[in-house]
């Protein structure tokens, strides 16, 4: 028969309550008692029934993290930050993918109501502000990477508008005045904010905005090349391109090179995210770095604070970006 917590208490010569406190890493237990309990656990081969304990508490110590897809490689560093922060607080991260599907996302969030998870982090969502607010009233949720317009929900992201502004201003300071942008269709808040940064940088530097200088597709790799082809077809094509992601920027670079252009000479390219690929590519892609690991750590820390204090702080935290200069931008001045 499997050993019980009562067996451990008897073998260690302590109370069941003391054994429980040791299992929960309580600081109120003496080092002697802790040693006795741990020795008894080893001798008896006792395995704590954490599931039963959590069900009695109505807690799981699990945070559900929902990513819209596995194609964005910067998610991996965010998730690593989440996992490390969660472990420090005695939580686990349960990762799932919604495939940007509303029905599947709602199905996954139902885990909050059947007590499979204590809270949820959405790394991009198909839900509107009203739905998010309703979930936030009943459960503990947070948005990560992507904010949702009008949703008063805990949100942690990079300063998307500021990062885009810095990238475009850098291109301008390098002497570029004809700057195109490859963005995305739809309502992704990060893309919209980066478009704002792009336009504001042009305005602040006295460069008129040209509607034809924005190409909108998706985050799919192929749309960088499609955007490049679109710009090449204009009567007066841009000589620099700012992309809302490094994946799109890498696609532009590949397409330009295949057509005989010298990237960093004939055409300048800047991305956003600073994924591993951007530094491995030849030429290295100039980009805006997201502090992905810190984003992951911060959102978990703030969410656990809300759980432990049974509160909804609903902060809007924007972490700083960093411009990474590499070889894809030509300095004309």
What order do the helices and strands come in, and which of them pair?
Elements: H1 5-12, H2 16-23, H3 31-44, H4 50-57, E1 62-67, H5 75-88, E2 92-97, H6 102-109, E3 119-122, H7 129-138, E4 140-144, E5 155-158, H8 160-173, E6 179-184, H9 189-204, E7 214-217, H10 222-232, E8 240-243, H11 246-258, E9 268-270, H12 276-280, E10 287-289, H13 292-309, E11 316-319, E12 322-324
Parallel strand pairs: 1-2, 1-3, 3-4, 4-5, 5-11, 6-7, 6-8, 8-9
Antiparallel strand pairs: 10-12
Could you list some keywords that capture this structure?
333 residues, alpha/beta, 434 Repressor (Amino-terminal Domain), Rossmann fold, 3 domains, four-stranded parallel beta sheet, 16% strand
**What ranges have pLDDT less than 50 throughout 5 or more consecutive residues?**
53-57
Tell me about the biggest sheet?
Answer: 6 strands, parallel
Write down the Rg: 25 Å
Please work out how many helical segments DSSP would assign. Answer: 13
What is the percent of helical residues?
40-55%
The overall number of domains is: 3
**Count of beta strands:** 12
- Overall mean pLDDT: 91
Summarize the structure in words.
The chain has 333 residues and is an alpha/beta fold. The protein folds into 3 domains: 5-48, Orthogonal Bundle (434 Repressor (Amino-terminal Domain)); 60-158 and 292-319, 3-Layer(aba) Sandwich (Rossmann fold); 160-289, 3-Layer(aba) Sandwich (Rossmann fold), CATH 3.40.50.2300. 44% of the residues lie in helices and 16% in strands. The protein has a 6-stranded parallel beta sheet, with helices on both faces. Strands 7-6-8-9 form a 4-stranded parallel beta sheet, sandwiched between helices. It has a two-stranded antiparallel ribbon with strand order 10-12. The longest helix has 18 residues, at 292-309. The model is unreliable at 53-57 (pLDDT under 50).
């Amino acid at each position: 028969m499997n050993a019980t917590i009562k067996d451990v208490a008897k073998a260690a010569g302590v109370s069941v309550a003391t054994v429980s406190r040791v299992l929960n890493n309580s600081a109120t237990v003496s080092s002697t008692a802790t040693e006795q309990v741990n020795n008894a656990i080893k001798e008896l081969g006792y395995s704590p029934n954490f599931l039963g304990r959590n069900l009695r508490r109505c807690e799981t110590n699990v945070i559900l993290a929902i990513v819209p897809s596995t194609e964005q490689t910067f998610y991996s560093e965010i998730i690593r930050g989440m996992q490390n922060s969660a472990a420090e607080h005695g939580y686990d991260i349960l990762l799932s993918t919604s495939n940007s599907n509303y029905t599947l996302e709602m199905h996954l969030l139902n885990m909050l109501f059947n007590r499979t998870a204590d809270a949820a982090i959405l790394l991009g969502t198909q839900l509107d502000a009203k739905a998010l607010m309703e979930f936030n009233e009943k459960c503990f949720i947070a948005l990560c990477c992507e904010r949702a317009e009008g949703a008063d929900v805990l949100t942690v992201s990079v300063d998307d508008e500021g990062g885009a502004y810095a990238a475009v201003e850098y291109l301008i300071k390098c002497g570029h005045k004809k700057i195109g942008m490859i963005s995305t269709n739809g309502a992704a808040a990060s893309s919209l904010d980066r478009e704002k940064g792009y336009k504001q940088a042009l305005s602040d530097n006295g460069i008129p905005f040209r509607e034809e200088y924005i190409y909108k597709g998706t985050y799919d790799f192929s749309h960088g090349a499609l955007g490049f082809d679109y710009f090449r077809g204009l009567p007066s094509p841009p000589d620099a391109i700012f992309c809302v992601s490094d994946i799109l920027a890498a696609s532009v670079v590949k397409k330009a090179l295949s057509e005989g252009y010298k990237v960093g000479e004939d055409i300048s390219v800047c991305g956003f995210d600073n994924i591993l690929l951007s530094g491995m590519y030849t030429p290295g892609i100039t980009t805006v770095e997201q502090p992905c690991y810190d984003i992951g750590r911060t959102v978990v820390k703030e969410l656990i604070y809300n759980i432990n204090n049974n509160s909804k702080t609903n902060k809007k935290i924007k972490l700083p970006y960093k411009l990474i200069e590499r070889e894809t931008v030509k300095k004309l001045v």
